[in-house]
Predict the structure.
Amino acid sequence: QVQVVQSGGGLIQSGESRTLACTATGSIPSIQTVVWYSQKPGQQRELIAAITHTGAAHSRKPRFTASVDSAKKTGYLQISRVEREDSATYLCVLDGQYWGQGIQVTVSS
């Protein structure tokens, strides 16, 4: 059984940078892809960034960078120079099927 644990969220001061992590535990040897979404109350989930273990990356927002450590079964989302509009719940999905529980990021000015 595979579980996904997210970490790194919380209260962040505007202008700081923060890295979110998404780690799989259980019976998989590694991970190949990581996709990150954000969701705000009353709004649809929005794709933020994605990356494969070969390094092919995509980001819809310049301040958001996805990375992955396949052997550690962990994906990362770095948010640079956070802004208040970045406040949201961030969700990850590994290998297209293993979802994290979501983690809240709140940006204060």
